[in-house]
Amino acid sequence: MHEISLLESVLDTLESQAEQQGFTQVKQVVLEIGELSCVEADALRFGFAAVMKNSLAEHAELLIIKVAGQGVCPKCQQTVLLETRHDPCHHCGSFGVTVLQGQTMRIKELIVV
Amino acid sequence: MCGICGCGSSTKSKFSPLKPHQHSHDSHAHESHGERLIRVEQDILAKNDSYADENRAYFQQHGIFALNFVSSPGAGKTTLLVATINALKNIRPIFVIEGDQQTDLDADRIRATGVAALQINTGKACHLDAQDIGRAVQSLNVPDNSLLAIENVGNLVCPSSFDLGEAHKVVVLSVTEGDDKPLKYPDMFYAADVMIINKMDLLPYTNFDVARCIEFAKRINPDIEVLQLSATQESSLGAWLDWLNQGR
Hints:
Number of strands of chain B: 8
Order of helices and strands of chain B: EHEHEHEHEEHHEHEH
Distance between the termini of chain B: 56 Å
Number of domains of chain A: 1
Number of strands of chain A: 6
CATH topology of the largest domain in chain B: Rossmann fold
Strand content of chain A: 25-35%
Structural class of chain B: alpha/beta
Order of helices and strands of chain A: HEHEEEEE
CATH class of chain A: Alpha Beta
Number of helices of chain B: 8
Number of domains of chain B: 2
Oligomer: heterodimer
Strand content of chain B: 15-25%
């Protein structure tokens, strides 16, 4: 359940941002989660309220923007949409597609008071 | 509706990210409800990664070759480490960091070889993080040019995300497990540079298909290096010890 550790890391970032930017309460947290990242959006949603309890982000809303997986085929050089990291190229069937997008786990933005 | 704050205005927002949330609606400014938008654009693991970068720089400065051993529970990481230590301890200094949720049992097995080991109990956590390793390296007082073996918590999921500053992740998979594990846990096989197929002496008693396992691992990670051995049989360790001695 490393989603809890990731959320604790999010909370650390919120706290340091609060110090730098001078806010006391977080109303909304926007995360960008790639479809190929090793994190489950539902598990993040599940743990969010528990981790943010008694913090500056208690009752904050969590918004998750999913980023589709995309890569380029090493053989035919075509762009490939990926559901998993090991999907073959759907143009030529080769494996080993180089992932270009969809691995991110980012804190994108916050709405704060 | 404003996509930023949901305030009900239909005007498109124009705002400066690091200033107070003051995109200029015709009807009102957002400062009126005291809310503002802050662009963070930071990786969730940024803090861990910065500790990992510090560790990596320290390892490079001091010629420490750090490896992060990952596997399912029971794949034979500790047995492999004990065998490796026995083969190399008279050649170069070796230090071990053991990660488990509970107990000192693995560190005790390592210490029985005469090599220093530090046990980290992660409690409820399912992985070691880079800050744990930074602290452990300082307290172990690891000398220059050592081999530092970090045995992660037995778990093929979570440790894949956490860079510890190691030179390589080494994933250990034993033939008593399924040969389809690379496809089941792709993130770990993608993150690893080396896959050790362990317990090869038991192969005749299993239906593990070595070629299939390697093919699956290479689908995930075409560059993964594969070594086959039995940690309990010293004679099978040659290629692994050669790889370690190259210390890349």
